[in-house]
Amino acid sequence: MKKFRIALIGLGTVGGGVWRHLHANHGQIQLRTGADIEVTRTVARRPERAAELGVPESVNRTDWKDVVTDPEVDCVVELIGGTTDAYLLVKTALENGKHVVTANKALLAEFGHELFELALEKNLQLLFEASVAGGIPYIKAQREGLIANRLREIYGIVNGTCNYILDRMLREDEDYATALVDAKEAGYAEADEALDVDGHDSAHKAAIIAALAYGFWVPCHDLHTEGIRDISRCDLLMARRLGYEVKLLAVIKCDEDKGVQVRVHPTLVPQGHPLAAVDSVYNGLYVCGDIVGNTMYYGMGAGDGPTASAVLADIAEIATHFPESRTWQPIATEDTEYHLKPMADIVSRYYLRLSVIDKPGVMAKLCDVFGRRGIGLSSIHQDESEEGGTATLIFMVHDATESVFAAALDEITALDIVQAPPVRLRVEDLS
Ligand code: HSE
Known about the structure:
single chain, 431 residues, alpha/beta, 6-stranded parallel beta sheet, binds L-homoserine
């Protein structure tokens, strides 16, 4: 039987999971791939971690530079995260003729263009199933299963940590900070949790999905990104009263003019839609193709098991074809017909929560701003409040252009009747 020799670089939550599950299911993977997959090298900066997992001392190294050029390695599995060492590591591995598997979405969002080109030039595989949607085999579905389709709309709940936090806040009345600690303890969050809660992790994943679908890489700084830090439980509850759930959503949509919207923000999703039922650490993607129609993908989005499952799928894919290398179409192409649509030009519905002084004339002033700017309201809500105190107003807004709504919001924020920064969330009807 052919041998396939891999180096596992990084033995954290995911690396440890890959080590354990590869050994536990070795026989079955061998049967299905026709390859005896052997971990000939690991890299753990702390040798105690390698020992804890039962990695023989002779196998572990503490520096990735000792491994990426090693002739005993056919495939490097990058699981250290970050974009500095990870970039050098992946690049050096490819330059030295090694196939690469990575779970690193930040790396691909930033350097994907260069790294995939290098892999293609060297006729090597650079696979990344674990970089998007954890355990859901989503990359394979989009890249292979939907290959013949023009994808019109892709909506994704692609960050397990944020989905878990929003769920805990709503269901358990847990505060944001406690829910975040729980997510970290469960091994869902990134080492730098700001990547999760500020939306960047979802944005990296959205950039990968968009590149696969439309053939161009959106620079991270051009991708509109908002996180969940400013969401309060009262917004989650109000959304529910209005018939929605709040989700951190990656929206990737192609308009008639081939302008592609790629954006990440908390979004009101209608309760009857399958995405509204994606809770806890689960991820979900709802994808509409011109041939297939609507499709839905669901599974755990983070944690050692789901991520290890995706990493092992990539390892198995390469092992199956080894020593041949399967050739993929380039991800980004010079002659793509699509382009990024500026955020200012997108059209959306909005939810707006305002804290205002409760006195006569306030509603008139606010409606005047909306009316002058041609913004239509689909509903207005106010619970009973004390005259002269603070009233909470919720406006649901019909379709408006982002730049027009932003200007209205600036004008409203500057009014002396407004007592706290407004909370603005977008609404997707997903119909
Ligand atoms: N921190 C990520 C998440 C891990 O919570 O979704 C999986 O990419």
